[in-house]
From TrEMBL:
InterPro entries: ApaG_domain, ApaG_sf. Signal peptide: none annotated. It comes from Flavobacterium orientale. Transmembrane segments: none annotated. The lineage of its organism: Bacteria, Pseudomonadati, Bacteroidota, Flavobacteriia, Flavobacteriales. It comes from the Bacteria. This is Co2+/Mg2+ efflux protein ApaG. GO terms for biological process: error-free translesion synthesis. SUPFAM superfamilies: ApaG-like (SSF110069). Residues 3-128 form the ApaG domain.
């Protein structure tokens, strides 16, 4: 698991290899990731959007961005947390993801970025 705190917001990520799948006549490697967002600040915040850079060992890069996470824009009061799971398909058994969440602070009404640390996506059979 990897974790990072940005402006009082802690992001923790755990990953799992889910198996291989054929899609459009190509082999893909499926990974899930489980993200915990904890508000350690003194202000209420809301997650507004996400931005991901997804890499695989074949040097392919995919950028994904959009509103919320899994259709939600959670509001976190001080001391609260939000947990969600999602996933991605890679063309190789090794890769990584990194990105950020754009959040709004309800006290200052300012938007700010919360860094999601780089996390590895590794199929166990691909590691020595």
């Amino acid at each position: 698991m990897v974790s990072q705190i940005t402006r009082g917001i802690k992001i923790s990520v755990a990953t799992s290899f889910e198996g291989t799948y054929f899609k459009n006549y190509k082999l893909h490697f499926a990974f899930s990731y489980h993200i915990t967002i904890e508000n350690h600040s003194k202000d209420s915040v809301q997650l507004m959007s996400r931005y991901w850079e997804i890499f695989d060992s074949l040097n392919d890069k995919e950028v994904v961005s959009g509103e919320g996470v899994i259709g939600k824009k959670p509001v976190l009061k001080p001391g609260e947390s939000h947990v969600y799971s999602s996933g991605c398909l890679l063309a190789s058994p090794l890769g990584s993801m990194k990105g950020f969440f754009t959040m709004i602070n309800f006290t200052s009404t300012r938007k700010f970025k919360v860094i999601v640390p780089t996390f590895r996506l590794n199929a166990p059979f691909a590691l020595n």
